[in-house]
C-alpha cells in the first residue's frame, strides 16, 4: 500500500482508510503494532475506525474481521 501511494496508484484518502482498517484488524487479532503504526492510528482513526470497529464487533470473529478487511482491499483494487 505504501508503494502504491508513493507511485500514485492509490489516493491518499483511500490509503488512510485501508491502513486504518488493516491495522485495527491486526490489533484485534492480537498483533503487536509498531510505534509508527500506533501513531498512525491515533492520528487517523476518527470516523473510519468507529465504523470499522462497529462492523467488526457485529461480526464477532477475528477471522471474519480479517476477511472483511481483505475483501475491502481487494474491492478497491478492481
Automatic annotation (TrEMBL):
Pfam families cross-referenced by the UniProt entry: ICAT (PF06384)
Claim: Coiled coil is one of the keywords in the record: yes
Domain Beta-catenin-interacting ICAT per the UniProt entry, residue ranges: 1-75
MF (Gene Ontology): beta-catenin binding
Keywords: Coiled coil
InterPro entries: ICAT_dom, ICAT_sf, LZIC
Coiled coil as UniProt keyword: yes
UniProt superkingdom: Eukaryota
Coiled coil: none
Protein family membership: Belongs to the CTNNBIP1 family.
Quaternary state and interactors: Does not interact with CTNNB1.
Protein name (Swiss-Prot/TrEMBL): Protein LZIC
Source species of the chain: Odobenus rosmarus divergens (Pacific walrus)
Gene responsible for this protein: LOC101385881
